[in-house]
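FIELD: query
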Amino acid sequence: MSGLIGRKIGMTSIFDENGKNIPCTVIEAGPCVVTQVRTKGVDGYEALQLGFDDKKEKQSTKAAVGHFKKAGTVAKKKVVEFKYFENEHKLGEVITVDLFQEGEFVDVQGVSKGKGFQGVVKRHGFGGVGQATHGQHNRLRAPGSVGASSYPSRVFKGMRMAGRMGTDNVTIQNLKVLKVVADKNLLLVKGCVPGHNNSYVIIQK
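FIELD: result
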């Protein structure tokens, strides 16, 4: 799938031709440099490796610096491979936001915001205060019973309990491209995108 690496700038809203206010996310999409071309003969599969966001050479390993020098570019902070790219591209070629067109639909992948260690009410939507569900007696945000006694004498895997919430890979599918600002490498997509502001996202057609 053809795509680009980008950075989530934040959310805003625009008006359509009917005067309706549409919430949208602004993404800085590219420009991305082709840092490696995977071929079936050498690598066993075909793909394009793209790099985004410059990185200081002193913060990179010598192996990484040499790898990017082959493509004629500086070291990059984010590198992603895209399989089944629509068009052929050469090593060192720059791919811009012009890859996308207004009106088409894209999938956006990112890492969701970290929420830290959370209880069952916030993490799984248990009833909690006011509803007193799941077997609690006098502790309204507690999980309640989590297992039997003599059999199976353990807690089943997958039991909904308190734990770390967020920082998961999330993909939002079929987001409509509302606007492409080519001179500023900006892409406006309808709706929300996972991750905090300035986090990296992957946009695929």
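FIELD: remark
The longest strand covers residues 3-15.
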